[in-house]
Amino acid sequence: MTINRYLHLIAGFVIVLSVILSQIHSPYWIYFTAFVGLNLMQSAFTNWCPMMTILRKLGVKEG
């Protein structure tokens, strides 16, 4: 898999997990969902995402 596919997989997983946690544990988890969404929006404009940097350091190939 490529960096972009991993990025989509991780972002989707974190969003679903935080929504579930906001329903079972605390409604404040929804802020984490908003953080991930805002980070995805800024990466669309800047072409930089912290997770992409981490994945590059782990040796995931570019797409």
UniProtKB/TrEMBL annotation:
Pfam families: YgaP-like_TM. Residues 2-56 form the Inner membrane protein YgaP-like transmembrane domain. Signal peptide: none annotated. InterPro entries: YgaP-like_TM. It comes from the Bacteria. Keywords: Membrane, Transmembrane, Transmembrane helix. The chain crosses the membrane at residues 7-24, 30-49. This is Inner membrane protein YgaP-like transmembrane domain-containing protein. It comes from Desulfuromusa kysingii. The lineage of its organism: Bacteria, Pseudomonadati, Thermodesulfobacteriota, Desulfuromonadia, Desulfuromonadales.
